[in-house]
Amino acid sequence: MSTSLLDQPEPVGANMPGDMSYFGDWLRSRREALGISANSIALKAGYTRNFISFLELGKRLPTDDVLERLAQLLGVQIDEITLAAFPDRFDDRQRRLLRKWLASDPDRPC
After folding, report:
1. The pTM is what?
2. Distance, CA of 81 to chain centre
3. How far apart are CA 103 and CA 12, in angstroms?
4. Which of 13, 17, 71, 88 has its CB surrounded by the most CB atoms within 10 Å?
């Protein structure tokens, strides 16, 4: 059973700019739910294991290009991974609408 951003409660402070640990936790949770090692996803994405580790530990924020590659490998839409990485890019209304849209999309990989 995979873990989706929609299935997880929004942590306190997740709406605050610079909350890198939320994305790291989301990335690790998604990767582990799919049974993919950090080394494997690093190799498939063309990054080092250390880079993936830094993302998961909240020491680095991904660029949009990194988000696109990871979304593809993790089977999520770019909007879901962007919401996990940069919740501050969305206001409360946009977050609610995006979550509703993601939940209603039957073709969205979970």
Report:
1. 0.67
2. 4
3. 22
4. 71
What is the rounded (10 degree) CA torsion for 52, 74, 97, 15?
A: -10
Residue 21, C-beta contacts closer than 8 angstroms, at least 6 positions apart: 57, 58
CATH architecture, domain defined by 17-104? Orthogonal Bundle (1.10)
Angle between helices 38-45 and 64-74 (to 10 degrees): 120
**Can you read off the two tokens belonging to residue 72?**
């593809």
Q: What is the CA radius of gyration of the chain?
A: 13
Q: How far apart are CA 24 and CA 51, in angstroms?
A: 11
